[in-house]
Specification:
The chain has 21 helices and two strands. With about 450 residues, the chain is mainly alpha-helical. Strand 1 and strand 2 form a beta hairpin. The chain is globular.
Amino acid sequence: MDVLMIIQFLIVLLALFVGARYGSLALGAISGIGLAILVLGFGLKPGTPPTDVIYIIIAAVTCAGMLQASGGMNWMIQVAERMLRSHPAYITILAPFVTFFLTVLVGTGHVVYTIMPIICDISLKQGIRPERPCGIASIASQIGITCSPIAAAVVSFMTISNANGFDVSIFQILMVTIPACLIGIIAAIIFSYNRGLDLDKDPQFQARCKDPETYNYMYGNSATTLNQKIETHSKIAVWIFLAALASIVIFAIFPDLLPRFADAKGNLKPLKMNLLIQIMMLTAAALMVFFAKAEPKKAVSGAVWQSGMVAVVAIFGIAWMADTYFGNYTTQIKEMMGDIVAQYPWAIAFVFFLVSVLINSQGAVVVAMLPLAYEMGIDGVILLGVMPSVYGYFFIPNYPSDIATVNFDRSGTTVIGKYLFNHSFMIPGLIHVVVATIAGLLLAQLYHSMNWL
């Protein structure tokens, strides 16, 4: 690695660091500054912006935004709340599975903002330390991104893998990521079940209870969605959304059902899955407008659509900058890491995790780093196995879902520690990533040996 290569790498890291500090749209925009310095300042050949992935995110977010605008997401949250309140003693076990599967269905972890106050309320009223379910539930809401058929991370993995000779479908990806992540969640639940002091033995909590105003703040209100009336059109929107998801999964399982079109050479090729997802998501969004009273203006102003568009800008800037740098130095990087990759190809998981800590986006990690991993000769089966490692942004507790969870916990037990890294999400997050990545590697190898991959 020469001096110029190091300087340019530091510019990439600086752009990511500064962008992460400002957050939101700044992450992608400031990556654009890094890209400009690399291309205009150092004369590097610009990489290729990840347009296919961006189109999928736009289509999926548009559909999810319409679902929220129609009130359908409220119905999904209400169903989840009924299940949680019917078994309050098991909130630490049930809460992470609820947040996980909500993310799997909707494709974004930001749905957690509605259900998290309910989780906090149930645990507090049940006398269970809220940190126990809240810490792992926040983690699980982000874990679900690598298990959703419409999430950018999953679709990006499929698109990039197919372009690099590893022919894998969305269904095959989910065959690995869903059970691996569920195993990771179970391991984190086992840790979380009795973590910290019980509320009646916690001196800090008991001190808070002695103040009448604080006590009323903690116990005087109840967060719930059960008093909301769900209209028929909202339920129709959910069924439209689920039908679109089911169609995508069916085509992924049975690719022979896909229509075929002649390519430039006259050979019949099936419709690409990334195009199918875009078609189904946009169609579902339109049907919600026609039959579920989804208002486009309301969708655009909703949290799901806005957070999705932020993700689009982030992936656009980060991935383009990363592709520019790594694309110009692929040979040098392969020479430097050749021995490590040959002996320990799974070590790429550490790279994925560290990059995720910096850029707060699993989809961006996949888009930015997966092409490099293939260029280095790492087998696609290994890369699929380590998919859970692309979630590392819990490490520094600055992600909106973690910050919101701390604020939702009226008991004050879910915290960002004095030393920043001793926060409520650290140990559950690390347990999940380690266990899920190991499970993913074993599952991927097992499926490969059975010719399922």
